[in-house]
Amino acid sequence: MRFERRWLLAFMIAACGDSGPLLTSAGPVTTFPGPLGTTAEEPPTTTTSGAGPGPITEAWMTGGPTTSTTGEVTTTSDGGLETTTTTTTTGDPLADCPRLRVMVPAGEVLNVRPSPSTAEEPVATLANGQLVETVAAVAGETIDGNSLWYQIASPAGFVFSGFVSCTLDEPPAPPAGYYLPLTCGMSAKITQGNDGGVSHQGKDFYAFDFGLGLNTPLVAMADGTVHHVFAETGPGDPCYDGGGPECGPYGNLVVILHGDNTSSYYKHLNEVHVTLGQAVTRGQTIGLSGSTGYSTGPHAHVMRQENCGQSKCQSIPLSFVECGVPTQGQTVTSMNCP
């Protein structure tokens, strides 16, 4: 059986209507074991032991209570023998691990495999910070001395334990609605709406541009978890005050994953005030507006999108609680009051 060690630089950051890979360093690229997403083959470096992954039924924990029975034979007063049987239930062995939180490096995704091994192609990917339900813990392919894998409920499959952590956290409830990304009572003009002719096409079709002054607070449109951040463009950098398509990958941004498995996207930030994996509540400040990346002036590029595991995915229709679907030139006022 051939074992493999793969990696994927999945952080594809795009400007309004532009996409391209984000290069964060000119130095060597760090590689990660097979369970991470991959775009390129590398020579096998993973150390394995034994004959490979055991069968799926070779579970260390099954997710259900563990029951054991013991018997004791004693002599009765009349010289007979009596057997006493004791049954003990130890409880759910996954009680402390009902869910897993994905913990991968920035820009990476975690592969979900059809078996506890990297021998087969992934069936799905998970974004950093995502919560999934645990079904069982099983012995599988050994990677860097670790053979623990988890079976998960949805997407159905197996993930390597090296890139998840057990948690009692409850998954967030789906939002009751999405509010404007502006502080309570603030008004702003929509400078480009859905299907905008300037740059709102393709993945950005359902995006909105808000005309905002420099360093205007932007807030979360709904509760969620930060699962992508880019905050590398600062004063003095070529794309800090905007630029053409070549600056597309360098716009500072925040992406928040919500309980309905969609995410909200906020770009061109001057400052980012949240961290990867952080839980945020509706109305919480996530950063300050700016003109970083592919931009001609201070504004905020905001949209709701599918959860594809990357920073930028296909935008989907977004109707705000306060004003529905605003159009270009319309002034909107936020009721996003925590």
TrEMBL record:
Domain M23ase beta-sheet core: 207-306
Biased composition range(s): Low complexity: 63-91
InterPro entries registered for this protein in UniProt: Cell_wall_metabolism_enzyme, Dup_hybrid_motif, M23ase_b-sheet_dom
CDD domains xrefs: M23_peptidase
Region (Disordered): 63-95
A GO term, aspect molecular function: metalloendopeptidase activity
Pfam families the UniProt entry points to: Peptidase_M23 (PF01551)
The protein, known as: Peptidase family M23
Source species: Nannocystis exedens
